């Protein structure tokens, strides 16, 4: 399980979450048992003001044995920031469609790959592990369907440059189980191993858990999620975005898989974030657990009538 709430979740929030709160949440997520935590993104504050404090968060977040802390880096300057903060892992990102690449980073895919090779080579030379995000794999807001051959070739390009794991992103939340099965099978046939793949599903249309289940049955064992379901989809205002970590933990544990996550603690962490940002978070498990806690408190409170 790869927790992306502090980066992919908060970057979509309207309000700026105070720096110390982000640092505290990172520690609380570790306390809850999460072992892969993406802290922030070393991008320009002009593009993502919500993460303008990336250097301080990455540097001051308390480290815990057995937990990998990482950050997104778009270029060599971002990598320098991650190195200065003492991170042991970074993530690079690119799009699977030309239109999204040009809209997102103002570069065609060919130029984006050149930048990623440069960053990845430099990171590996410093002893860092490098993870890769491939966006709009399951559908592009500008082009619609993305060709499976394009996805296959880009996954190979990322693996060949030294990325240890490629996270296949359903950026706009249009993916369905049939696609997960088809894409994973095509990647396997082309020589990509299951351990080199992860799924980053958005729940915009309610299919995230179904997609995870399909990926699980296809041999994929790494899934990205955000505590509370933080974040949204920039192409579908008001819609749910990232798959909620609580929902993922509940399903996996109920199926007999061991996640190592204390669900009760995680719910408490998400409840604190919900209070901080002043709105309900979309995690189904979070809301069910909070309702159950509230009911239990009412039952335990002595009546003053009669």
Structural description of this entry:
There is one protein chain. This protein is of the alpha/beta class. It has one domain: TIM Barrel (Alpha-Beta Barrel). The protein is built from 12 helices and 8 strands. The strands form 2 sheets. The chain has a 6-stranded parallel beta sheet with strand order 2-3-4-5-6-7. The chain has a two-stranded parallel ribbon with strand order 1-8. The relative contact order is 0.12. The mean pLDDT is 95.
Number of domains: 1
Low-confidence stretches: none
- Provide the CATH top-level class: Alpha Beta
Q: How many strand elements?
A: 8
Rg is 19 Å
Spell out the blueprint of helices and strands.
Layout: E1 2-3, H1 5-9, H2 19-31, E2 36-41, H3 54-60, E3 68-72, H4 76-84, E4 89-95, H5 98-105, H6 109-125, E5 129-135, H7 148-160, E6 165-170, H8 177-189, E7 197-201, H9 208-217, E8 224-225, H10 245-254, H11 263-277, H12 284-300
Parallel strand pairs: 1-8, 2-3, 3-4, 4-5, 5-6, 6-7
């Amino acid at each position: 399980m790869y927790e992306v709430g502090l980066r992919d979740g908060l970057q979509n929030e309207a309000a700026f979450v105070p720096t110390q709160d982000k640092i505290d949440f990172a520690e609380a997520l570790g306390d809850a048992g999460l072992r892969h935590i993406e802290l922030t993104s070393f991008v320009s504050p002009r593009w993502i003001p919500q993460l303008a404090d990336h250097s301080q968060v990455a540097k001051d977040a308390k480290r815990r044995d057995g937990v990998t802390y990482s950050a997104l880096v778009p270029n060599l300057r971002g990598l320098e920031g991650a190195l200065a903060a003492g991170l042991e892992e970074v993530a690079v990102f690119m799009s699977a469609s030309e239109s999204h690449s040009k809209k997102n980073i103002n570069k065609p895919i060919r130029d984006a790959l050149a930048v990623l090779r440069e960053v990845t080579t430099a990171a590996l030379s410093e002893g860092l592990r490098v993870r890769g995000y491939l966006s709009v794999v399951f559908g592009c807001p500008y082009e619609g369907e993305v060709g499976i051959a394009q996805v296959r070739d880009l996954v190979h390009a990322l693996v060949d440059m030294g990325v240890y794991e490629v996270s296949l992103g359903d950026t706009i939340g249009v993916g369905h189980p049939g696609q997960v099965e088809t894409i994973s099978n095509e990647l396997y046939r082309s020589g990509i191993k299951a351990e080199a793949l992860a799924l980053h599903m958005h729940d915009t249309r309610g299919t995230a858990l179904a997609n995870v289940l399909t990926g699980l049955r296809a041999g994929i064992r790494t899934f990205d999620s955000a505590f509370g379901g933080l974040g949204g989809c920039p192409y579908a205002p008001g819609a749910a975005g990232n798959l909620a970590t609580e929902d993922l933990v509940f399903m996996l544990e109920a199926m007999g898989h061991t996640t190592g996550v204390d669900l009760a603690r995680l719910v408490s962490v998400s409840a604190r974030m919900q209070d901080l940002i002043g709105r309900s978070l979309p995690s189904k498990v979070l809301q069910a657990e909070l309702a159950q806690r509230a009911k239990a408190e009412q039952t335990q409170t002595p009546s003053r009538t009669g």
